[in-house]
């Protein structure tokens, strides 16, 4: 079952959490397994503090007894655990199906180490098939849609959806993502785009579970 694999990957990643750490908690169904697993370790005596990447993850984390801090007060996180929509052998990921990619990227960037957790369906040779979510300031939406269309991104705005920050999300599908760094640079250069789901430098490692077997990917040069 996919849920069993999500849980197995989550439990493997949560085993990396050490006493006293400040932990970044991701968003989504797989991250929720990690939050619950961390809650169990806290109940068993582990002392950690956490920051969260969405209101939903904050609610869950508090519910399971994790001490949640306001990220606005935090400069550096020890370890972040988060899900992904696609992850490849380079530890490049696409994230944001749940709309949390802006906060997720900020928390990941602040983290000494970031681990992606996923079931095997998320593992790909090369990222690019998943929709690439882009967070857009509502003021800029019509202009941004025009530019994304001109770039061949086939943008589709999510209906009746706002992020936790009150912004819009546009799902893009580029015909090719052969050069993800070039695509990331293009998106970053468009005024009105506040963030996107390409994670090219943030992910240090991934735990991926398939049929109950957890494998670990480590980015070349990343420290465990
Ligand atoms: O915005 C959502 C996040 O990037 C999620 O971590 C990602 O979409 C994976 O979610 P799930 O574990 O539910 O597939």
Automatic annotation (TrEMBL):
- Sorted alphabetically, which keywords does the UniProt record give? Isomerase
**Which is a Pfam family this sequence falls into?**
Rib_5-P_isom_A
Q: What is its EC number?
A: 5.3.1.6
One Gene Ontology cellular component term attached to this UniProt record is:
cytosol
Question: What processes does the entry annotate via GO biological process terms?
Answer: D-ribose metabolic process; pentose-phosphate shunt, non-oxidative branch
Which pathway does the protein contribute to? Answer: Carbohydrate degradation; pentose phosphate pathway; D-ribose 5-phosphate from D-ribulose 5-phosphate (non-oxidative stage): step 1/1
Q: Which GO terms describe its molecular function?
A: ribose-5-phosphate isomerase activity
Q: Where is the active site?
A: 104
Which reactions are catalysed by this chain? aldehydo-D-ribose 5-phosphate = D-ribulose 5-phosphate
Say if the entry is tagged with keyword Hydrolase.
no
Annotated residues for binding of substrate:
27-30, 82-85, 95-98, 122
| Superkingdom per UniProt | Bacteria
Subunit info? Answer: Homodimer.
- Biological role stated in the UniProt entry: Catalyzes the reversible conversion of ribose-5-phosphate to ribulose 5-phosphate.
Q: Which family does it belong to?
A: Belongs to the ribose 5-phosphate isomerase family.
Name of the protein this chain belongs to: Ribose-5-phosphate isomerase A
The organism that produces this protein has a lineage beginning with: Bacteria, Pseudomonadati, Pseudomonadota, Alphaproteobacteria, Sphingomonadales
The gene that this protein is the product of is: rpiA
């Amino acid at each position: 079952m996919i849920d069993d694999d999500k849980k197995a990957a989550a439990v493997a990643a949560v085993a990396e959490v050490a006493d006293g750490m400040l932990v970044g908690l991701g968003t989504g169904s797989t991250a929720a397994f990690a939050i619950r697993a961390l809650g169990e370790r806290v109940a068993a005596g582990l002392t950690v503090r956490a920051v969260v990447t969405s209101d939903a993850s904050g609610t869950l984390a508090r519910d399971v007894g994790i001490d949640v801090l306001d990220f606005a007060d935090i400069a550096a996180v020890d370890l972040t655990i988060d899900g992904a929509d696609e992850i490849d052998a380079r530890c490049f990921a696409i994230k944001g199906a749940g709309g949390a990619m802006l906060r997720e990227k900020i928390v990941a960037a602040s983290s000494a180490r970031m681990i992606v957790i996923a079931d095997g369906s998320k593992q790909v040779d090369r990222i690019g098939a998943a929709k690439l979510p882009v967070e857009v300031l509502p003021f800029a939406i019509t202009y941004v849609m025009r530019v994304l269309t001109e770039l061949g991104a086939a943008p589709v705005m999510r209906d009746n959806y706002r992020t936790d920050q009150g912004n819009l999300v546009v799902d893009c599908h580029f015909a090719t993502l052969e050069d993800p760094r070039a695509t990331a640079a293009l998106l970053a250069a468009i005024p009105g785009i506040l963030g996107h789901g390409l994670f090219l430098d943030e992910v240090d490692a991934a735990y991926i579970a398939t049929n109950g077997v957890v494998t670990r990917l480590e980015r070349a040069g990343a420290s465990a």
